[in-house]
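To: structure desk
From: M.T.
Subject: fold request, one chain
Message: Could you run this one when you get a chance? Sequence is below, nothing fancy, just the single chain.
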Amino acid sequence: MLVKLVSITPDPEGFIAHVARVSNPDNQSNPDYVKLIKYLIKNHHMSPFEHAYATFEIRTSRAIAAQLLRHKSFSFQEYCLSGDTKVTLKLPKGNTYKRTLTDLYKLQLHPNQHIKRNGLPLARIYDGKEFAYARILEVFKTGIKPTFKITLDNGKTITGTKEHKYLTNDGYVSLEDIIGLKLLGNTAVMTKRGIIATNGIPVYQSIDWMREQKQISIENGTGVAGIAKEAEVSYHTIRKWLKKLGLCFTKLEVAKYSKVWNKNVFGYKIKPHTLETIERMRKSAKHGKDSNLWRGGVTRSERLQIADWCSTIRAQKLIESQYGCVNCGSSIKLELDHIVPVYQNKELAYEYSNIQVLCHNCHQMKHKLAKDSKSWRVTKGHRLTIEWSEIVKVEYTGEQDTYDLHIDHETHNYVANGIVTHNSQRYSEATAVEPIELRKQAEKNRQSSLEIFDPIIENNIAASELIKAHTENSLALYKKLLLAGVAKECAREILPLATTTTLYMTGNCRSWITYLNLRLEEHTQKEHRDIAVEIAKLIAMYYPTVTEALNNFNDYKGGFFA
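Reply: Done. Structure tokens follow.
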């Protein structure tokens, strides 16, 4: 069992007080709210507490998860986007490309040979600092639901449900809460300004990233070169963007990490190169066979003739390779490659059997490993970080099929239509079972149980041993069904209710008070109480005044947070 706080309203108690003082605007910004919150709780004025939210990630058994879903005052992860939403993807050995959620769902149902062999492609995610890629565990079709299209100030658009969450400065927040979404008939209305994270910009174009790296480079003495190495771009690119962002190193900052080369040195002059010197340098440079990059081969005109010949056989080669890279199976950006390079054997330049189909990435990697002159052209691409964009328009787009992904990454997000969105966690991988504690049933209270015991069931075998064998057999059968091609939602039907799962549970402060008041009760089911105890500890950290007030009034079973 695991309980983790995922998201919470910033300064939740201050916000509750701000809402409570709505009738007295002049006093809304008063930072002293302790007495007010205690007064509200003592006199049961609970409506202001409905505006401060907290989201918890709960890992428990399927049986307890099913019971948690019955708490109707909470919302659970139902994050859905329209089927035409495009996800940024990458094959393990390939370039980036985009596919719609509908296409990914169909691909999951009817996978091609590459997908069967390697699984679904990697999806672009934001790891908290920059963009990376993570494995797609599953594509969900989440049903027909009301959807809303938002437009950002940078032109990006996305369509999803009001519950779908996007990355904001306050963490992942639902669209409904980001813009205060209201639906008047068939007209969607924004009641407040909302800013969310989008696909991003190169890290060196981010003023926050550059400011941080500049300070680090001063401390470790690497200067502009250190920033360039970290950003994986040239020295001159960093110089240009330091100037654009107004972050150029001052003489004092440079002096902090470098020695002044001409300090106490006199009697020298710095002169530019003369034309004669420049010409002599040019003539002395190594060209052709004398160059360090020379690997042998043919002249430029001969290379062009070989390229023309390759274009005539390209279609036939693609058909023979079934439109896939012979190395990794990718069908993205395919190129023809000489198995034996032309510079090694010119006689094989026009040999049909010496030609193979490679994707761009594998083609470049082959030359890099061979230490070919092409290796200097291979680049890693830009490191990207988020860019904040404002939602400027919202439209109600009616009911339509919706989809979502489950991403194998602790940040639980992916990039859709260039926007950072939260992913579903409808199911966890069935790899573990919650330990089962056998207790005697209480005689009077059906929701309660007594001391732990392990009865003998049959043939002198204890119940715990039979349960262990049953769960191991169930998990083994589940894995066999998946290997046989059975859909996950069908295979899960045979799993025991003790199988672990993960869900998100979101509620306002008033709902959490009611939940804890019920589930911390001494006679409630022990597994529920264990979860409630962990939630109560976290609530007490972020709502200290609320916690103190609840503990002081018997109406709320005083002391249950202690």
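Reply (cont.): The mean pLDDT is 82. Let me know if you need anything else for the meeting.
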